[in-house]
Amino acid sequence: MNELLVIKEELHYAISLEEVLWGGLLMAVTMVIHGSGMIATVRACNALNRFITRFKGPVYLLGLGVLIIAAWMIIVIDLIETSVWAGFYVLKGAMNSFSRAYYYAMVNYCTLDSGYLPLHWRLLEGMLGLAGWMTLAWSTGVLFTLAQAFQQRHTGLDSGRTAVAMPYLPPPTDQPPPQDSSHG
Predict the structure, then answer these.
(1) Structural domain count, the chain
(2) Which of 25, 92, 95, 113 could make an S-S bridge to 101, C-beta 3.0–4.6 Å?
(3) Is the residue at 37 inside a domain?
């Protein structure tokens, strides 16, 4: 009997303007937090990298430490963003416990879980998943850029030498190269 009631509710469910507006606002807040956090992460890592270039010792290990700090900063930023969504769930009565709301928000932020919010807030589950995908991709880009700079510094490509790019060469064929007919 309970299953029939759930099916009946789902048949009458329509996405509300309130749900879309709150979801859009939560995504915007997430992007503001993330953008600010990514800028802070890059600035902090650049400052640390400038500082460690003064040392003559194990700069390589210190550079790895900077990458670890960047990863930790990104994780903290993601935790803050997730807490905004969890706080909203509790504020709007969609969930009754912040720890439970936080758990489900974190799971949904990293993967895509569904079915934990009341029907009239169900769209937020997908919107949180989208926000998670966008911010995690952004974080990956920042971490990749920092790691690439680290690698360039420690492979000698950063010391005034230019890297030699290997052009793509097609596999050899038995045919002679085409003749240029424009020279007569």
Answers:
(1) 1
(2) 95
(3) yes
Closest-CA residue to 151 (of 66, 55, 51): 66
* Separation of alpha carbons 101 and 96, rounded Å: 8
Identify whether the C-beta of residue 48 lies closer than 8 Å to the C-beta of residue 96: no
Crossing angle for the helix pair 98-110 and 123-154, to the nearest 10 degrees: 60
Please report whether residue 119 resides in a domain: yes
- Per-residue pLDDT tens digits for 139-178: 999 999 999 999 988 887 655 544 444 445 556 666 666 6
Contact 85, 105 (CB under 8 A): yes
Tokens representing residue 118 in the block = 């009341």
CA distance 72 to 74: 5
CATH number of the structural domain spanning residue 27: 1.10.287
The Cα angle at residue 145 between residues 142 and 149, in degrees rounded to 5: 145
State pTM to two decimals: 0.75
Cα 91 to chain centroid, rounded: 26
Could you list the residue range(s) of the whole structural domain that residue 25 is in? 18-157
Q: pLDDT tens, 70-93?
A: 999 999 999 999 999 999 999 999
Q: Which two tokens stand for residue 98?
A: 């912040």
